[in-house]
TrEMBL record:
Organism of provenance: Oscillatoriales cyanobacterium SpSt-418
Residues reported to bind Mg(2+): S134, D279, D281, D283
PTM info: Activated by phosphorylation.
Any one GO MF annotation of this record: phosphoglucosamine mutase activity
Ranges of residues in domain Alpha-D-phosphohexomutase alpha/beta/alpha: 36-166, 206-292, 296-409
Family stated for the protein in its record: Belongs to the phosphohexose mutase family.
One of the Pfam families matching this protein, by short name: PGM_PMM_I
Domain Alpha-D-phosphohexomutase C-terminal, chain residue ranges per copy: 414-475
Reactions accelerated catalytically: alpha-D-glucosamine 1-phosphate = D-glucosamine 6-phosphate
Domain of life of the native organism: Bacteria
Protein name: Phosphoglucosamine mutase
Length: 489
């Protein structure tokens, strides 16, 4: 049945230690920050501190209510998690809230984030939710929501969930009296694996289109430890694995897409053709060539873009990237007759621009790549498979392809930890930093650029300088970092 807001208020008043909601505690009775809960990639924080089981329970309940009201029906919701020690605790709490809202939870268990998004899109599910903090350290965690189309949950629905958590129920139809079920559905991951493999098999009329390639996979002790080796091997590749067990204490620690040293060493030692490093939830990937050189998202976009352009499958020869992408990449792509559109940092912005312009290829320098020919959002495993296929079909090496691509401008990115959330998000109000940025831009002119921003996923200010010379890059990066440390950190 549908419960009125007044009845719901009475129920909560009877079962909690407070009489009415406020902006900090809402109906949860838990301390909530003044700033928005949803960042650029869901709700993130330190597990057991900000992100607790009681909060996850309430997030699940109110998300379930919002999703039910949005679609007007009861339907399953897909749930997945990475290997963090806190992921099972948060998944169980979240599932409890979702079932209390009347939804049926289909729990995939350990899986990549893109598997949740894909299965939400191809099933009768009302949406999906993933427990992961992506590339963050083990003590962090997060909750990512997806809509029934497999895309990130709309800003409107995020705002409705947050409003409900804070006690504002005036715009929400709520339901009570129907209880959902919880089901283990790990067998659904077979459909995701098939969706990764089938396009490559079909395109090359070969059940083993990667046969002859030796590939090293750094699985970061995370979500791809089971599926990635199996998928590469099924397509014929010879696979060497690093950090290939789920380990909540070590996920992303000195490994994976943020720490490439061990992958570079292994590729050279094993004389592999190429290697891939995933992050904790496998929605992004970076590669290295046979010489151990880093192949970041800019190179991946350029090489994949050239291939799609050659096949006539790149509308308007357009690639969508972010403000972080290298000027060398942009100018090389323009020389190929292409157009590079830039967005703010975050795959949701890339996705939105692709949707607005009809572009089919986009991504981030950090390795979050979206190709609408084969998937909805960023998928590290999909990207790695297609880059491997591109190399094999080219009849040459990734090293040779890199040498013929572009020369990047020197670029340096440094993170400065700023724990104070308000100070971090309002960094533009720091006059000393604004003056330092203006001085850098005046000095470099058209020889370089500066990008300072607050991370949407970590408690850091990111400082990036790109210029024609290493000397300019090093000087202005160190100068700006020192200002951030003095006035914000």
């Amino acid at each position: 049945m549908v419960m009125s807001v007044s009845h719901l208020e009475e129920a909560y008043s009877a079962t909690t230690a407070f009489s009415k909601p406020n902006s900090q505690t809402g109906w949860t009775g838990l301390a909530l920050p003044d700033s928005r809960l949803f960042g650029t990639d869901g709700i993130r924080g330190k597990a057991g501190d900000f992100l607790t089981a009681p909060l996850a329970l309430q997030i699940g309940y109110w998300a379930g209510q919002v999703l039910r009201a949005e679609v007007g029906k009861v339907a399953p919701i897909i749930l997945g998690q990475d290997s963090r020690n806190s992921s099972s605790m948060l998944a169980m709490a979240l599932a409890g809230g979702l079932t209390a809202a009347g939804l049926e939870v289909w729990d995939l268990g350990l899986c990549p984030t893109p598997a949740v998004a894909y299965l939400a899109s191809m099933s009768e599910a009302i949406g999906g939710v993933m427990i992961s903090a992506s590339h963050n350290p083990p003590e962090d965690n997060g909750i990512k929501f997806f809509g029934a189309d497999g895309g990130k949950l709309s800003l409107k629905l995020q705002e409705q969930i947050e409003a409900a958590l804070r006690g504002n129920l005036s715009q929400l139809t709520t339901y009570n009296g129907a209880y959902g079920r919880y089901c283990h559905r790990s067998e659904l991951l077979q459909h995701y694996c098939a969706a990764l493999q089938d396009p490559l098999k079909t395109a090359h009329q070969d059940n083993q289109p990667l046969k002859g390639l030796r590939v090293v996979l750094d699985l970061a002790w995370g979500a791809a430890t089971q599926l990635a080796p199996m998928t590469f091997q099924a397509l014929g590749a010879e696979v060497v694995c690093l950090h290939d067990q789920p380990d909540g204490d070590r996920i992303n620690v000195n490994c994976g897409s943020t720490h490439l040293a061990s992958l570079k060493t292994a590729v050279v030692q094993h004389q592999a053709d190429l290697g891939f490093a995933f992050d904790g939830d496998a929605d992004r990937v970076l590669a290295v060539d046979a010489q151990g050189r880093t192949v970041d998202g800019d190179y991946i976009l350029y090489l994949w873009g050239c291939e799609l352009q050659r096949r006539g499958e790149l509308p308007n020869n357009t690639i969508v990237a972010t403000v972080m992408s290298n000027l060398g990449f942009e100018r090389a792509w323009e020389a190929q007759g292409g157009t590079l559109l830039r967005t703010a940092v975050g795959d949701q912005y890339v996705y939105a621009e692709m949707k607005n312009t009809g572009a089919v290829l986009g991504g981030e320098q950090s390795g979050h790549i979206i190709c609408h020919h084969y998937g909805i959002g960023g998928d590290g495993l999909m990207t790695a498979l297609h880059l491997s296929s591109l190399v094999r079909n080219a009849g040459t090496s990734l090293t040779d392809l890199l040498d013929k691509s572009f020369q990047p401008y020197p670029q340096l990115l440094q993170n400065v930890r700023v724990e104070d959330r308000a100070r971090r998000r309002n960094w533009q109000e720091c006059e000393a930093l604004q003056q330092a940025i203006a001085a850098a831009e005046a000095d470099m002119g058209d020889r370089g650029r500066v990008l300072v921003r607050a991370s949407g996923t970590e408690p850091v200010i990111r400082v990036m300088v790109e210029a024609a010379t290493v000397e300019l890059v090093n000087h202005w990066t160190s100068t700006l970092v020192a200002v951030v440390e003095q006035h914000l950190a």
